[in-house]
Amino acid sequence: MALAVTAAVILCTVLSAQSQRRDAYAASRDHPAIQYSTAPVSDPVARLNEGLRDGKATLAFDSGTGYLASVLRSFNIPIESQALVFSPTSFQSDRINMRNPRAVFFSDTVAVGWVRGGSVLEVAALDPHQGVIFYALDQKSTSTPQFARNDMCLSCHLSWDTLGVPGLMTTSMYPLPDDPNAYANGFTTVQGSPLEQRWGGWWVTGSPGGARHMGNVPVMPADAKKKPNVPPGDLKSLDGLFDLSGYPTPYSDLVAQLVLAHQTRMTNLITRVGWEARLAAAVQSADAASRVREAAADLVDYMLFVDEAPLTRPVSGTSGFAERFARNGPRDSKGRSLRDLDLQRRLVRYPCSYMIYTDAFDELPQNARDAVYARLIQVLAGRDQAPRYKALSPADRRAVIDILRETKKGLPAAFASL
Asked: What Å distances lie between residue 253 and 100, 174, 256, 316, 383, CA to CA?
């Protein structure tokens, strides 16, 4: 009963502790070095639960939307982040369709899923040590509401698509034929996915710069028979397409969805390198140490947007998400921030992920942080001349170095000589 940030039914892989796959964590989530199911957590939901129990926090219930508005305020999640997915992927799938899409809202560390008329709010929160923890909150008024953890969500949220750790994903779904024996067919999308492959099963408002994406098109036969009258071209708003009662905004913002695709993968990469490092500390071997370095290299490449699919034309949203997102980041003495968006040829203006500021990154085990920073310095200094790094111009590298120097605490001393 947890947030499925997906637009397709995922055929989940059962992970084997004996697997030697190199690009994902392959041991048990309950290895003594990890103890995902039993170790204490301190994610934002766990902290709010404690406040609710102690009477230091409250949640207000609304007869139409339940605890949604109050929960978003508690986690400081902007309504402008709303992204609407109409593929029937949540366990509340019987209520989800093009006229009643599931709304996903997110901050850097918490995502909330709301289904109009649904029985629970679905919540996923990033714990600094354990990765993504999944919760549900009953949509019933009570004096002391509590979020309930449910690891059943891992049946889909722990797979090779999440790099072998409990995590998040955004996917795109192909339309299903009107055949009772047809299987859902979709794939995970990340920052390397071109716009033409994105958003199957999602509503999309904003301009994709002329790209013919997969959004705003029915993916289920029932929706194809009763689809809203979608006008041709870009959608500025969803007003008039279906009843929007309960939805905080009439948007499913394109820019928010671009950020979400980056963030989900980045979250999983941070968790993976931390788990590999904890495993390596517990079971020391040359192979385990190598896996930490490999995970760190993968994290750095993604953090620096090395594999990002370029935008062929400028894109834009309509909800105001882009402007609000940019306001939240620390800035250097020149006014630059890693949250500054580009949207002309790529997602961000200065190619380094804002997720470097999260507690999950700061609280990585020392051996993991050492490996990540060593690789980050190597790439930013231009010491790796592999063709994949040519997209990082000298000006980009210089800007990232300078911004990090002024805004990121705990940088290694080696940054001073870059």
From this structure: 17, 20, 5, 9, 38
Give the neighbor-by-neighbor strand order of the sheet with 148-149.
Answer: 83-85, 102-106, 110-114, 120-127, 131-138, 148-149
Distances (CA, A) of 224 to 116, 179, 230, 244: 21, 13, 12, 19
Ramachandran region, residue 343 (left: φ > 0; alpha: ψ -120 to 50; beta: rest): left
The pTM (predicted TM-score) of the whole model is 0.93
Give the model confidence (pLDDT) of 145-194 as tens digits: 999 998 888 888 889 999 999 999 999 999 988 776 666 688 899 999 99
Residue 282 corresponds to which tokens in the numbers above? 């517990």
Q: Which pLDDT score, from 0 to 100, does residue 32 have?
A: 97
Four-CA torsion 145, 151, 156, 160, nearest 10 degrees: 130
CA distances from 78 to 69, 239, 345 (A): 10, 20, 25
397 membership: H or E segment, kind and range: helix 394-407
Phi, psi dihedral angles at 83 (to 5 degrees): -130, 130
Specify the DSSP element, H or E, that contains 49: helix 44-54
